[in-house]
# Entry
Amino acid sequence: MSKPIEPRGMKAPPEARDIAAPRELPPGPFEHDITIRWGDCDPAQIAYTANIPAWGLRAIEAWYEACLGVDWYAINIDNGMGTPFVHLDFDMVSPVTPRAVLSCKVYVRSIGRSSLAHRVECFQDGELCFTGQTVSAFVAATKMKPISIPANMRASIQRYAEQQGRPLETAA
# Structure
């Protein structure tokens, strides 16, 4: 019987594990800049609608890497957990074009036992273009079952939230 081949060195993720130590970011909201290109646009010469949530999620992934020191791929493969989205909500305010950099600010809205809610606000030349609100769940990658946000990750997220310049939302 032949041994199964793992494509491109891929392997099953380990059991869920935390980052080595809490991290700290400078005060203020995290900002991620995205260069908009002609190919990102539709025939109306503004951003193709489907790109808007993708840019918001790209900003959130950059926030994960800055806040926790790991991107989504590493969280899954090296830390054995996923953060799938359970809610996405995006509102368009003004057109996005290739004429300016898209600057996205990422805020933590709330931190649950196993959930994390973000708000993304994206601007061009100081004008609000769109906002997004998301909720993701921390899950064990091997079982896709909810897990508590690990202690060092939670501490990093809470530190960020305390310094983001906006209070966390409270449940009604």
User: Anything to note?
Assistant: The mean pLDDT is 92. The first strand starts at residue 30 and ends at 34.
